[in-house]
Write the structure tokens for this entry.
Amino acid sequence: MNWGVRHGCICVTAAVMTLLAAQNSFALTREQQKWCEGKDDASPDLRITNCTAVIEQTRVKKQKAEAFTNRGKAYRAKGDSDHAIPDFDEAIKIDSKDGEAFYNRGLAFRDRGETDRALQDIEQAVKYNAKNSVALNTLSHIYYDKRDYDRTINSLNQAIKLNANFALAYYNRGMAYRAKGEPDRAIPDYDRAIKLNANDAVAYHSRGLAYRDIRDYERAIQDFDQAIKINPDFILALNDRGIAYAAKGSVERAIQDFDQAILLDPRDGFAYNNRGLAYRNRGEVDRAIKDYDQALLLNSNYVLAYYNRGNAYYDKRDYDRAIQNYDQAIRLDSEYALAYYDRGVSYFEKHDYDKVLRDLTQAIKLDPKDALSYYNRGITYAARGDPDRAIADFDQSIRIDPKNALAFYNRGLTLRAKGDDEHAIADFSQAIRFDPKHALAFYNRGIAYRGRGNIDLSLADLDQAIRLDPNNAYAYYERGNALYDKRDYERAIADFNQAINIKPDYTAAFNVRGLAYNGKGDSDRAIADFDQALRIDPKFAAALSNRGNSFQKKHNFERAIADFDEAIKANPNYAGAYYSRGLANQDKRDYQNAVADFTRAIKVDAKNAEAYNARGFSYLSLHDEDLALSDFDQAIKLNPSYNAAYYNREHYNLDKA
């Protein structure tokens, strides 16, 4: 009995002992769970050890899922995403709607650069926990990196709605607005971020950048000042303040900021690059190049420094070295549209139009809204003699930038070259509308008006061109031509004088001044001007022909014909010289040679009514009445107001009667 009782007691004791042991085990698990959760600043290794214990011992699914998530977070804290991701996988297997696990797995994928998988996971995290403002903020980062700024802003709107005092979300939304090209909308968000954290140097710096974007350089500088006051070693703020000073024209002050940035960090290639830009703005191109050299010595992959050094060599007209630098920039960044653009401009200076078109076409492909690339490609097509493609590019440039005075101006030039003075005038007028001081637009519109026979409007425009640019010899020359058309020879001669004063080798001005002297009946001074034009250019066909006309008026037919011969030798397709030589032969009563010359003139210019009329007169003198009548008829057909042809035909009919 006693043994039985004692046995029973022993059993009870064992049971109690077992119960006590179980209690000790549960106490240890709570400690492990505390460390697994990362409380009391537990190290990642301590967290991993205790989470492993929880995973192995617990049968509660929720607890196990949390332990996998916490161990994954600890692995991630160690930079070990390879072990972190499988733990998050396990947590999601246990609970397929575990927003925390999706969120942290997304972070791990982002650590590994797997942006698309990160995006999928964090979108799932937000789906299962729509009130996780931190996840929404992180989601915005991924959208931002993918340049999907609308979704970035939408995510941050939700985060801010959940937490109206989420300073980082305001800051990030400001960044997204600025990246989207809306700095005016970014500024209120930076304001809010700064209000929530008045010591946020980065927010002041970013707001300064937004003010700089809208060219409010004073406010930009004030914000950079504040950022530097909070953090005196804020090198980026020093650089950006320097850029703002340079933009407002305070180049000396800009250089001081770049100097200070370099002093704080002599290996700051960014500051050397920026100081190079400031030196270039000051016209010190060689000092700029030295700074770009230093920036590239510090960072041989510094794309912007190669690009800027290329621009500096372009300034020095060293186009080959400029192209070499643009080549390097493009090699490092094959989508750098500006480098393609400026390399194309450099090739233009070398007249290598095929390469210009290749580069500008690539720049347009990378940035289809770049009005300047279309504009310069239009210039290149015009230089190659392809006016239709040039006009198409100017059209597109104007569609993108409807106030681009240069595009209107050059489209006008191209249209005028095609003989379309009416549309050219409309384009020059638009150029003047957007740039009322565009002297060349007035100048070329004046020429176009003269081409349409509107001499008074031509003179008004040429007057304005000269007022805007009193040293434009060509404007004086063209105004002289317009006055010559009005037979105002005195004023025409005064303008040719001024053109020659500005440009002493201006052969065309000597030539037309000679014509004006002829118009006044002063053939000697006319011949002196033609002589001077020919001293400068002995093969100037127009001057040779005009001097021939002067000799003809003096009845010096031999010298006249000699000049016409030389004019034709200089330009075998000069219809006017053939015509004038025909008249000289006619005056000599050498009608056979006169007919031959008029025939050549007609062959070159089939619409030359004067040549038909003169040939008709020679035929009449040779008693070839049928051919004479045919030529008079053709002259009248070409010019129904040609009185001389009517007279000659009537004279023929009277003689016949």
